[in-house]
Structure prediction request, 468 residues.
Amino acid sequence: MKTKKFMDNDFMLTNKTAKKLYNDYAAKMPIFDYHCHLSPQMMYEDKPFLNITQIFLGGDHYKWRYMRSCGIDEEYITGGKSDKEKFRAFCSCLQYAIGNPLYHWTHLELKRYFGIDTVITAETADEIWDKTNKIIADTKMSPSKLINRSNVAYICTTDDPADDLLVHKKIAEKGHIKAKVLPAFRPDFMINIDKDTFVNYINRLSDVSDIKIKSYSELIEAVYKRIEYFHAAGCRISDHALDSVPFEETDGDSVNKIFKAAMSGKELTQAEIDAYKSYTLIQLGKKYNELDWAMQLHIGALRNNNARMFKKLGADTGFDSISDYCIAYPLSKLLNALAEEDNLPKTILYTLNPKDNYVLGTMLGNFQGSSTAGKIQFGSGWWFNDQRDGMTEQMKALANLGALCKFVGMLTDSRSFLSYTRHEYFRRILCNLLGTWVENGEFPADMNTLGKIVEDICYNNAVNYFKL
Prediction:
């Protein structure tokens, strides 16, 4: 039996229709990166990278987790070893990463940004180190160069309500990035009343908004003021990390008492925490709807599981996992509370736990509206689902239960400037899924219809949905 060449031009495209859909339609479409964790400051400063480790491993906790699983000492991951030693350690374990999407992602990064087809092993590590670093030095490879060569049209960063957003303005004025770089509103700190950061954050929000926040109504006044500020800066998207979905029936007076209790340092019950969070999400949702923003709800992470490593390295360093919260009932209540008064904004629902694919897939149909096609979206396979099986199962669930053709597609959700290759990965998976259905006789081989579906999911739907 003849073995296919490793990651050739038809990589992940297993039939004739898939190849045509990818090459004739998907490959040419721009990228709309409507959610990422790239640093606006790094984009503005645009400093050339010093070596491949900075680009490959800097802040990429997907790669850090894999290295730890292979028994690599933390000194070679986030510790004090040299960048070359860290790169060698990464290559030595990636060599055996069969079945892990990192293997594909990393080789795509090498191929697309460095023109290198060399397979990564412990033996080839030094050769790749030398070749990539020469290219980095010769081209003065920087964030803008990586973005510009990736055919990116829009980038929405993740920004706190207290941010001044001046760096976004500076990026636009500098003009070195072809993509439109816009902020996205991430108000987790003012929602997480149960965290020890809450009181200090409210005081910071008070200073930034120039509103003395002593009551809940003043808090909402302040955060609405910040939403208007973000809107004036081009923001049209919010984002919320909901590890679980909170919902508790309450009213404004009760929430005001809960807010004042938290500000005075009193310990809250879980019912009080849920009441504050759900009521606040509803107040925010009303404002988003008024301004025609999209609201993203990322559901189901269990964060900072390793207390010792959290104390050592902080959050977002590779010690999070999937949780198994029950989400259907509180999510229905939360969305319905907004829909009852016609205040439900465009909403994208993501689940980290694939057990909830059909929960979200059916929840969409409860709250759709004619104002926007696909008003309530089932977000792309997220985080641990950002791989072939996860993305395929998300799209199959959406196709079975709703309108896959109106899906707003892939987002990067990454801190790495090389991660745009994941859009290629997604597009190949999408085209292969559609191509398989066609070649199995489950959908007509109408390339005009199929091509439109592919182009819309890759880019056009996001343009129409976010209206940036």
